[in-house]
Amino acid sequence: MTNNEAIIEASGLRKSYGALEVLKGVDLNLKRGEVVALIGPSGSGKSTLIRCLNMMEQPSGGTIRFRGREIGRKFRDTGDKIGIGTLRRNVGMVFQHFNLFPHKTVLENVTEGPIVVCKTPKEQAEAEARELLAQVGLQDKHAAYPNHLSGGQKQRVAIARALAMKPDVLLLDEVTSALDPELVGEVLTVIRRLADEGMTMAIVTHEMAFAADVSDRVLFLDCGTIAAEGSANEIIRNPSNERLAAFVSRFNH
Ligand code: ADP
Ligand code: MG
Fold first, then answer.
1. What pLDDT band is residue 37 in, cutting at 50, 70 and 90?
2. Averaged pLDDT, 148-172
3. What is the DSSP string of 122-191?
4. How many Å lie between the centroid of ligand 1 and the Cα of residue 105?
5. Going from the N-terminus, what domains does the chain have, and what CATH number goes with each?
6. 3 state DSSP class of 75
7. Could you read off the pLDDT of 107-132 as tens digits, one per residue?
8. Which residues lie with the beta carbon below 6 Å from any ligand 1 atom?
9. Do the bridges between strand 6-17 and strand 61-66 make them parallel or antiparallel, or are there none, so unpaired?
C-alpha cells in the first residue's frame, strides 16, 4: 500500500530531560500508506519519540521533516520549513487515556477541531463527524457524553476525532493499554480497517500479535535507540537479537 512519498523523516533525533538522555539519536521514516509498529520496554522512550514527532515535546537534537519540510517550533511555513500549527493540523494523535473533552458530547468532541482550527462550517463538520462515527461503529452515540461511554467507545471517539482533521498520518500511543481486555478487540478492529484503507500510521503497542499482523515494519526501541528494525517476521515472530527475543517472549502471541 505504500508509495515513496516520505510523510515523516526523523533523523538523529535526541531528547534529554535534564541529565536523563531518553532518545539517543533515533532515525525513523514513514512513507505514505505505511504502518510502522513501535515496540519496546516501558521507559525505553516510545512516548517521547511519538510526542517529538508532532512537537508536543521539543527535541534536543536532530531533525524532523514532514512531507519533506523541516519542522521547527519557531518556523513559519515556507517552501522548505513548516511551523507546528500546520504540522499539528496534519498529524493526528491518539493517546492511552483518550483525552476527550468531558463537558462536550461525542459529536462536539469530533467537530471541535474542524470548526475551531480549520474553520469548517458547523453543518459540514457535523455531517463529516456523523460519517466518521458510523465508521467506528458509534452512529447512535452522537449526543452521549464521554463519561457515559465504555473505554472502548471513548477510544473509538478519540480515533474519530483525530480523523476529523483529515490528517496525513496518525500517531497512536498505546491506545488499548487502558482498556479492559474484552474491549481491546473493537479498537484494534478500527485500526486494522484504517490500515487496510491506506492510512499512514505509527503505532506504539504491546499487542504483539496485532503489531505483527497490521504493520509493514516493526521498530524495537530499547534505551533510547532503535535496537532492531525489520519485518514482523524478523522482529516479532523470529527475533534473532537476544534482548529482543526476551522482550517479545513476555507477550503471548
Ligand atoms: P515509554 O513510552 O517507552 O514507556 P517514555 O517516553 O514515556 O517511555 O519515557 C522514557 C523515559 O523518559 C522514562 O525514564 C521517563 O521517566 C522519562 N520521561 C518521560 N517524560 C518525561 C518528562 N516530561 N520529564 C522527565 N522525564 C521524563
Ligand atoms: Mg509510553
1. very high
2. 96
3. HHHHHHHHHHHHHHTT-TT-TT--GGGS-HHHHHHHHHHHHHHT--SEEEEESTTTTS-HHHHHHHHHHH
4. 32
5. 6-249 (3.40.50.300)
6. coil
7. 999 999 999 999 999 999 999 999 99
8. 17, 20, 22, 40, 42-48
9. antiparallel
Q: Give residue-wise pLDDT tens across range 85-104.
A: 999 999 999 999 989 999 99
* C-alpha 116 to ligand 2 mean position (Å): 29
Nearest CA to ligand 1 atom 14: 43
**Which protein residue has the closest C-alpha to ligand 1 atom 5?**
45
Size of the chain in residues: 253
Instruction: With a cut of 90, say whether residue 73 has pLDDT above it.
Output: no
Confidence band, pLDDT 50/70/90 cuts, at residue 74: confident
* Atom of ligand 1 lying closest to residue 40 CA: 3
Q: Name the residue with cell 477541531.
A: 113
Ligand 1 center to 45 CA (angstroms): 6
